[in-house]
């Protein structure tokens, strides 16, 4: 192990959106785990848990502020409105970069096994700049989610995207990796694909996914579809190339069909095919509209990037330097 990497300052970044039902439980569990790591000499006593409030509309922010005032191990970064899960992760990492030697992102529901933190830290101490958390299986998912997730990863690999199967947003980044990440300026964020592009030495830690102890997941089907589309359009232009190949094939097929039709007309044949013509026309119109939709998705991404709007707006940061042990107990 590298001596200079031992007992580094760790910041846990926890994005939160309407998590009032579980957030107090999560705070206590994370504090308990961090204190155990400190006692074992795995992380520095200045390590913290940074919660990122992504525009919650319930009592999540009030509960976080109460916890942060009670224990300085807890810090709270709050957005002005809901900017999305990926933006919350990025904001927490970039804010923590100034203070931490390493940052680990984890979801607020703690379905990702926090005991795997020891393995993340050990891998970091061995010299890895990025450590990816990969779930052992998808047994806790419904059949629909398991099928769609598996299909999506296969699609991404087929499109040539450098992405790790079954890796969500449970990962460790060193300060070096965070500084490099801060140089990326994409508005359309897909962290699972963006981080592997940096090319730093990396490792994988496998973990089990637990059942959610309270509340419901805030990651709706609509949000998952949006994330899936962002992932494809952020990492690959192969869909546009497929459209180009399809267009070329259609043109060749049309020319061949036109030649056969013209030859038949010269020979005086009464060419039948009204139904076929209608079906082909409908099919081609459908393909055309679908192709325009894919192209439009890329153009929309270009439009959003060209605006150069901020990826998030911070409303407040509650962060304290000194730890008060009497208040932390």
Brief characterization of the structure:
By secondary structure, the protein is α/β, with parallel strands linked by helices. The protein has helices spanning 23-39, 60-70, 85-96, 117-125, 143-158, 175-181, 191-194, 221-235, 238-266, 274-307, 325-328; strands spanning 10-16, 48-53, 74-79, 102-105, 130-135, 167-174, 202-207, 314-318. It is elongated and about 95 Å long.
Can you put this structure into words, describing what you see?
This protein has 329 residues and is α/β, with parallel strands linked by helices. The protein has 2 domains: 3-235 and 310-328, Spore Coat Polysaccharide Biosynthesis Protein SpsA, Chain A (Alpha-Beta Complex), CATH 3.90.550; 238-307. Helix content is 48%, strand content 15%. The chain has 11 helices and 8 strands. It has helices at residues 23-39, 60-70, 85-96, 117-125, 143-158, 175-181, 191-194, 221-235, 238-266, 274-307, 325-328; strands at 10-16, 48-53, 74-79, 102-105, 130-135, 167-174, 202-207, 314-318. An 8-stranded mixed beta sheet has the order 7-5-6-4-1-2-3-8, with helices on both faces. β1 (10-16), α1 (23-39) and β2 (48-53) form a beta-alpha-beta unit. The relative contact order is 0.15. The model is unreliable at 324-329 (pLDDT under 50).
């Amino acid at each position: 192990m590298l001596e200079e990497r031992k007992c580094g300052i760790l910041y846990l970044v926890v994005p939160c959106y309407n998590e009032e039902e579980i957030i107090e439980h999560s705070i206590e569990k994370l504090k308990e785990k961090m204190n155990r790591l400190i006692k074992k000499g795995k992380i520095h006593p200045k390590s913290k848990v940074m919660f990122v409030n992504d525009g919650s509309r319930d009592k999540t922010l009030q509960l976080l502020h109460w916890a942060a005032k009670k224990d300085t191990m807890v810090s709270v970064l709050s957005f002005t409105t809901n900017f999305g899960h990926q933006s919350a992760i990025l904001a927490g990492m970039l804010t923590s970069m100034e203070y931490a030697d390493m940052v680990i992102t984890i979801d607020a529901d703690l379905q990702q096994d926090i005991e795997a933190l020891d393995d993340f830290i050990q891998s970091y101490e061995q010299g890895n700049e990025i450590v990816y958390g990969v779930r052992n299986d998808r047994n806790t998912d419904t059949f629909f989610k398991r099928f769609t997730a598996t299909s999506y990863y296969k699609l991404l690999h087929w499109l040539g995207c450098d992405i790790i199967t079954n890796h969500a947003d449970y990962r460790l980044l060193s300060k070096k990796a965070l500084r490099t990440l801060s140089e990326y300026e994409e508005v359309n964020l897909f962290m699972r694909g963006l981080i592997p592009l940096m090319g730093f030495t990396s490792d994988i830690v496998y973990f089990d996914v637990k059942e959610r102890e309270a509340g419901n997941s805030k990651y709706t089907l609509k949000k998952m579809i949006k994330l899936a589309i962002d992932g494809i359009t952020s990492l690959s232009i192969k869909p546009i190339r497929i459209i180009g190949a399809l267009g070329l094939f259609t043109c060749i097929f049309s020319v061949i069909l036109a030649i056969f039709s013209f030859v038949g007309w010269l020979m005086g044949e009464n060419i039948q095919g009204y139904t076929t013509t209608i079906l082909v026309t409908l099919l081609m119109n459908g393909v055309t509209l679908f192709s325009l939709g894919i192209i439009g998705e890329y153009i929309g991404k270009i439009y959003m990037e060209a605006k150069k709007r901020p990826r998030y707006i911070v409303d407040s940061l509650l962060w304290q330097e000194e730890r008060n042990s009497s208040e932390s107990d």
